[in-house]
Every structure is written in C-alpha cells, then in structure tokens.
Amino acid sequence: GHRLVDKEGIINPKAFYNYLSAWATNDALAYGASQGNLKPQPQRWIHSPEDVQLEIKKSSPLVYTQLPFYLSGLSDTDCITTLIMSVRELCLKYEAKGLPNFPSGIPFLFWEQYLYLRTSLLLALACALAAVFVVR
Question: Fewer CB within 10 Å, N- or C-terminus of the chain?
C-alpha cells in the first residue's frame, strides 16, 4: 500500500502537493497553529462527505516556506548550543539534497551569535595586535 511518509521520514514526492492542498485547508489546527508562511498559497480544497472520488488538486510548487520552531526544555547553554548544532547539521543534510533552508527563531536569532564568539574575539584581537605591531 501507499504510505504518507516513508521509513526515512520523507513525504511521498509524487503526492506532496496534493497533500499540501488538503493539509493547508482541512487541518486548520496543524497549519494555522504552525504560523506557516507558504508562497504561493496552497490550493484550496475543502473535503465534502459527498465527494467519493477524493480528487485533490495539486498546489503550485513552493518557492518560499517559513515555519517557526517551537522548542521547550532548553534549560541551559549546553542544551541550547547542542540544539543549534543539531538543527544546523540537519539543515546541511537537506541543503546537500538540493533543499536550501535556514532555521529561524529565538535560539538562532539570539543564541547562535554566541557559538563562535570566543573565536571571533580572538581573531579580532589578533588583527588589532597585528595592526599595532605592523604599523610601528
């Protein structure tokens, strides 16, 4: 039989845009609560009990998608940095498959800048010291 998601967690590519139409207009809690921003907007499809064919029109291919992260249980810096590194690793995996993406949300907007702060400060200090001694 056909499965919505395969063993690797990938939605059936041939049916993805049909599923997207149904999800965006019939699963109001999931799509609405996700605060998803999909461009172009998915095709509207409203299920009717009289519709025995279940013909769901495909949505247009997405050119932009924004889905925020909702995270809990991040109690200390180690948890947060582990999360950021794990998500970045996952993003790179999908970028290698041709799906450019960029995570967003408080951990990425606020905390990520601190991941390489020591390295950046040491580099800035080295440049400043080099400038002082080279100019002399």
Answer: N
